[in-house]
Design brief:
Elements: H1 2-6, H2 24-33, H3 38-41, H4 45-52, E1 61-67, H5 73-81, E2 99-105, E3 108-114, H6 127-142, E4 145-151, H7 158-169, E5 174-179, H8 181-185, H9 190-204, E6 212-215, H10 226-238, H11 244-257, E7 262-263, E8 266-267, E9 270-274, H12 281-285, E10 305-310, H13 318-331, E11 340-345
Helix pairs in contact: 11-13
Bound molecules: guanosine-5'-triphosphate (GTP) and magnesium ion (MG).
Length: 353
């Protein structure tokens, strides 16, 4: 009978079964889309205590460390902060909750969210594990950037892909860390194989193709510091803008070179495209805090957003969206960042050049 409720005229109707856990993620998605990023809006416990001590409240980068159980998430954080802060154990499922760990480096604040490993949903047995999945999803939501840790000795599994999918769906900046390099270094023929490993991994998680990829060993500390270089690179990319003239020129060329498919006899038509000043999901809500480029905080990791004024937004499909995205990346690669394409309906007569 779900369809009957559509006729009531509500913008969104979600059918779900709480008992069978169906439709819940759709509901969470719908709620989340209407909420500002909690990290920016509400201080974490750590942040609040720092604020109380009177220090200047500055922007912190919240980094969610996610991945399957036992891949070395807690070890990676320990290696970064160089202490036994997070609990590490050989037993998969050691971290039962999400733990926030603050870390200062070169005068900058980072909050690492150490998240319990996500198991395959089908194998979830206890309620504690059900909650660990939910917490991981929540960690991703409240992070400015997500680090997906993968165990190199095992390679990319279906579960890694699923977690990568959560990051991609949440449209978060991403870094993929291939961990436990020390264990496979001897197995593989050094240097050359590094590139091959990265290529293999990238092809297996192609949907997270914008992510930066790093090979590390949390045990020996090798390459762990490079995480910060990657973050810096992503921050730098997040500040890049494409001029309106250039953007419109190459997008119109893209439409001409490869026209969108016909949908029920209609074709998507582009009138005008623009990159809003404060682009990005998170910053859109708080745009009043950032009136101009020069006021932009250097730690801002907001993904670039492009608004396309078209005849009918429903005429775009996933393939075409990806095509346009790749064209944008040709002009500006935006490493580590997802590209947000927002389509708006506009009458063809309004063209204000
Ligand atoms: N050789 C090697 N062992 C590692 C590395 N990173 C982690 N380990 C080991 O892998 C095991 C699991 O590490 P954890 O850091 O607890 O893994 P986790 O991802 O936090 O696991 P959960 O909290 O259960 O999700 C421990 O025995 C670590 O010592 C690494 O780079 N090299
Ligand atoms: Mg852990």
């Amino acid at each position: 009978m779900a369809a009957e409720f559509d006729s009531l005229g509500f913008e969104k109707v979600i059918s779900l079964s709480a008992e069978h856990n169906r439709g819940i993620s759709e509901l969470l998605d719908a709620i989340e889309r209407r909420l500002p990023s909690p990290v920016k809006e509400y201080p974490t416990v750590v942040r609040r205590s720092l604020g109380e001590s009177g220090s200047k409240v500055e922007q912190r980068i919240a980094i969610a460390i996610v991945g399957r159980p036992n891949v070395g998430k807690s070890s990676l954080i320990n290696s970064i902060v160089r202490g036994e802060r997070a609990i590490v154990s050989e037993l998969p499922g050691t971290t039962r909750d999400a733990i926030d760990i603050t870390y200062e480096r070169d005068g900058r604040q980072f909050v690492f969210i150490d998240t319990a490993g996500i198991r395959r949903r089908g194998k979830v047995s206890s309620s504690a594990e059900v909650f660990s999945v939910m917490r991981a999803e929540r960690s991703i939501r409240r992070a400015d950037l997500c680090v997906l840790v993968i165990d190199l000795t095992i390679g990319v599994t279906a579960q890694d892909k699923r977690i990568g999918g959560l990051i991609q769906k949440a449209r978060k900046p991403a870094i993929v860390v291939l961990n436990k390099w020390d264990l496979i270094r001897s197995r593989r023929g050094e240097r050359q194989s590094v590139r091959k490993i990265i290529e293999e991994t990238c092809s297996r998680i192609f949907f997270l193709n914008y992510a930066q990829v790093l090979i590390t060993s949390a045990s020996t500390g090798e390459n762990v510091d490079r995480l910060f270089a990657s973050i810096q690179k992503i921050e730098h990319a997040a500040r890049k803008r494409i001029g309106t003239g250039v953007l419109n020129r190459f997008l119109h060329q893209a439409f001409e070179a490869n026209p969108p498919p016909l949908v029920k006899g209609k074709r998507l038509k582009l009138f005008y495209a623009t990159q809003p000043r404060n682009g990005g999901l998170q910053s859109a809500e708080a745009s009043h805090q950032k009136p101009s480029d020069s006021d932009m905080h250097p730690t801002d990791l907001a993904p670039p957003e492009f608004v396309l004024f078209v005849n009918d937004p429903s005429l775009i499909n996933e393939t075409y969206r990806r095509y346009l995205e790749s064209r944008i990346r040709n002009a500006e690669p935006y490493p580590g960042l997802p590209i947000l394409l927002t389509l708006r309906r506009r009458a063809p007569t309004v063209r204000s050049f």
